[in-house]
Design goal:
Elements lengths: L25 H43 L8 E4 L4 H7 L1 E12 L5 E14 L2 E13 L1 H5 L7 E6 L2 E8 L2 E12 L2 E11 L2 E3 L4 H8 L3 E2 L9 E7 L2 E13 L1
Length: 248
């Protein structure tokens, strides 16, 4: 039997190249870009929207305060702290609020109020604050007339008041310490000069003059009571603090 003829190996079928990873379709890629752009636009717009809402909230609160306190000379300045504002507004609570206003005391004296409120929350009939730190400043000019004659008042430093006037035609300068007794501010001389020469601040003329100069503090808002008085560049300031205060 003849030997088998050599067989020619069958041609191998061409093998397919390694399958390439699927590439995102153009439509899918476009939707992803649009979604990312939209999300970025929202994130960029949030701070601007929050700032706008904060400004509107501060303006509305200033209007509310002005309407309830006709003794104010102008619309108060209001700053609402905490971020984001919109979240606090939705909850009806803000960590801190600061109010600065110019008004008049019942006796007609101008008063500059600077009030810091902590833990402010909205209640049914208004607002409450867990803490209040208030400062009420009367400028020197408004107190000068009560110091006698044509007196000039200024800050002597170290929380003391300097009073300058003329007595018997001679210049007199007295440095006095302010003390708070209830709702009355009294003056106590610590040093004095007459015509530039040091004199005893306890001399009867000076002691009697200061004893007659007492300042009665008016009733403070929200039932607050002054805890101390101080002297600064802008005038004499009464300080008051309170907790769990119901605001008008």
């Amino acid at each position: 039997m003849p030997a088998d003829a050599p067989t020619t190996p069958a041609a191998a079928e061409p093998t397919s190249a390694a399958t390439a990873p699927d590439r995102p379709r153009p439509g899918r890629r476009r939707r992803t870009v649009i979604a990312a752009t939209a999300a970025l636009a929202v994130l960029l717009a949030l701070p601007a929207a929050d700032a706008f809402a904060r400004h509107r909230g501060e303006d509305r609160l200033a209007d509310r305060i002005a309407a309830r306190h006709p003794d104010l000379r102008s619309k108060p300045q209001v700053e609402i702290g905490g971020y984001p504002f919109l979240l606090g507004a939705a909850r009806g609570a803000h960590p801190e609020v600061r109010v600065r206003a110019d008004g008049h005391a019942p006796d007609g004296r101008p008063v500059e109020a600077d009030v810091e409120l902590g833990g402010v929350s909205r209640e049914k009939d208004g607002y409450t604050a867990s803490a209040v730190d208030a400062r009420f400043t009367v400028p020197f000019e408004a107190l000068a007339g009560e110091a006698g004659g044509k007196a000039t008042l200024s800050d002597a430093g170290n929380g003391r008041l300097r009073i300058e006037r003329r007595a018997l035609g001679l210049p007199v300068a007295v440095t006095a310490e302010l003390r708070l007794q209830g709702d009355t501010v009294t003056l106590h001389a610590t040093s004095a000069t007459l015509a530039g020469a040091p004199v005893d601040p306890a001399m009867p003329m000076i002691r009697q003059a200061l004893a007659e100069k007492q300042w009665k503090l008016p009733a403070l808002p929200w039932g607050l009571h002054a805890s101390e008085v101080s002297v600064g560049p802008d005038g004499v300031t009464a300080h008051a603090r309170g907790e769990d205060v119901t605001l008008d």
